[in-house]
């Protein structure tokens, strides 16, 4: 057996891994890949989908993103502090059925990589954890839940506990699946955190970063557990839209 095969959790139907490499090594063997980026990409996706909108993931916010937005007849989200940005609070007041390009180095990039796996790609967060779990149970097959994490200044992965907790919230409801040890650890993180989600998101590194930058409302919106029934699925346009359930 090749060394890489040892880390693919192939004997289990529900798996958990981190970041870009997790998508490539584990997601490639799955029927469904779930991308989790609680602070803030997948929470933003949930907010837009809840307004019957469409989200086009994009890796970098640069001139190519502007061209891409024009091509898709969509609004390009800017940096935090702009009217529309990678901020759940900024998206809460957008009109219904808005088409938006949402650049992100974490959740959006993981989405682009997950598309190459060939299966269904879903965006999930704490807000829609149960809705996503129900969809997966109905769909059947193997599933990999990816915690996107954040980036250290040198570009390497910084594991983010809010993503592991949300991943665990989904995996906890996949009772008919066989969970890998990695998935079981994510479930354990969620079960520990379940009664204090708001406090933990406020106190964790990613939450503190946003609060100190003046975005406490983003953390509050991301902390709302199971307030949404939206299941964002990557469609043929490579955009997230609500699944037909």
Strand ordering within the main sheet: 1-7-2-6
Highest-level CATH class: Alpha Beta
CATH topology: putative 2-phosphosulfolactate phosphatase
Number of helices: 11
- Helix fraction by DSSP (H/I, runs of at least 4): 25-40%
Topology:
Elements: E1 14-18, H1 19-25, E2 32-36, H2 41-49, E3 54-58, H3 63-71, E4 75-76, H4 88-91, E5 99-103, H5 107-115, E6 120-124, H6 129-139, E7 143-147, E8 150-151, E9 157-158, H7 161-171, H8 181-193, H9 197-203, H10 205-212, H11 216-222, E10 232-234, E11 240-242
Parallel strand pairs: 1-7, 2-6, 2-7, 3-5, 4-5
Antiparallel strand pairs: 8-9, 10-11
Report what the structure shows.
The chain has a single domain, classed as putative 2-phosphosulfolactate phosphatase. The protein has a four-stranded parallel β-sheet, with helices on both faces. A three-stranded parallel β-sheet has the order 3-5-4, sandwiched between helices. Helix content is 39%, strand content 17%. The chain has eleven helices and eleven strands. The chain is an alpha/beta fold and 245 residues long. A hairpin with a 5-residue loop joins strand 8 and strand 9.
């Amino acid at each position: 057996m090749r060394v890489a095969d040892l880390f693919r959790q192939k004997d289990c139907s529900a798996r958990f891994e981190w970041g870009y490499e997790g998508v490539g090594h584990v997601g490639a063997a799955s029927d469904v890949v779930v991308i989790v980026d609680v602070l803030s990409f997948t929470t933003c996706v949930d907010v837009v989908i809840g307004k019957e909108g469409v989200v086009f993931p994009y890796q970098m916010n640069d001139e190519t993103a502007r061209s891409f937005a024009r091509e898709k007849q969509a609004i390009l989200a800017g940096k935090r502090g702009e009217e529309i940005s990678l901020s759940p609070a900024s998206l809460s007041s957008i009109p219904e059925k808005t088409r938006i390009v949402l650049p992100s180095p974490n959740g959006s990039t993981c989405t682009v990589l997950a598309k190459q796996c060939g299966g269904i790609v879903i965006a999930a967060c704490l807000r829609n954890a149960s809705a996503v779990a129900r969809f997966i149970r109905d769909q059947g097959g193997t599933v990999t839940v990816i915690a996107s994490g954040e980036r250290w200044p040198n570009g390497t992965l910084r594991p983010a506990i809010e993503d592991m907790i949300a991943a665990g919230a989904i995996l906890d409801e996949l009772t008919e699946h066989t969970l890998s040890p990695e998935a079981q650890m994510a479930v354990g993180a969620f079960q520990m955190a379940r009664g204090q989600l708001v406090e933990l998101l406020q106190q964790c590194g990613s939450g503190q970063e946003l609060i100190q930058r003046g975005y406490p409302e983003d953390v509050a919106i991301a902390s709302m557990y199971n307030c949404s029934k939206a299941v964002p699925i990557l469609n043929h346009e490579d955009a997230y839209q609500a699944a037909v359930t």
